[in-house]
Amino acid sequence: MPEVTSVSEFPVDPTLTEALAQQKAVDLLSEALGASPHELSLVLGDQWNGDPLDPRLVGACIFGSDNPDDPQRLLIDYLVVGQTRPPTDYLVDFARGWSELGWEVRTNPANRAIIQAISPDHFMLTASVATNGDTAFTIASQCFPGTNRNGAPPLPETIPHP
Predict the structure, then answer these.
(1) What is the mean pLDDT of each run of 10 residues along the chain (162 residues)?
(2) Is-contact 123 41, C-beta < 8 A?
(3) Confidence (pTM)
């Protein structure tokens, strides 16, 4: 069995930069939200399940690497707001909507509080519901060369339902 050395099953995209990854991630979050119930929106938050949350991280794509020149990926977290039903009830809606977008939806029967979807351009979106009911969308970009870290503008505070 081959050794797992990368956090991504997809190759590094040599044309992707940190700024492009962020813009694509925000666009995909808006697209995913558009395929979700109309009452929902996304907001940046600083708490998740009562713990501090950093809504934007850049991290290595290679396990155990602290070399900034190694491939990197961008992770962005937004909280889902506007729910009118129990948070876990929305996961079925997310799965259906994301599947209709042509994304590969993945579920785990052992953990019904999480679903994932892979976009055609290899970004991974995870919807998760915490024990306190907090619901988040976390998107991870495809890996990009560490030399393509060029910063990015601030994230939008909210992503309204389109």
Answers:
(1) 62 93 97 97 90 88 83 95 96 97 94 95 96 95 92 93 91
(2) no
(3) 0.92
**Separation CA 88–CA 130 (nearest Å):** 9
Q: Which residues contact 79 (CB under 8 A, 6 or more apart)?
A: 42, 43, 44, 45, 48, 134, 135, 136
Gap between the Cα atoms of 72 and 75, Å rounded = 10
φ, ψ dihedrals at 61, nearest 5°: -90, -10
**Residue 87: closest CA among 136, 45, 46:** 136
Q: Copy the structure tokens of residue 51.
A: 């713990």
Cβ contact 161:40 at 8 Å: yes
For the chain, list the strands marked E by DSSP: 41-43, 47-48, 51-52, 56-60, 72-81, 104-107, 114-118, 124-129, 135-140, 158-159
- pLDDT at residue 63, as a whole number: 82
Give one DSSP letter per residue of 69-101, joined into a string.
TS-EEEEEEEEEE---S-GGGHHHHHHHHHHHT
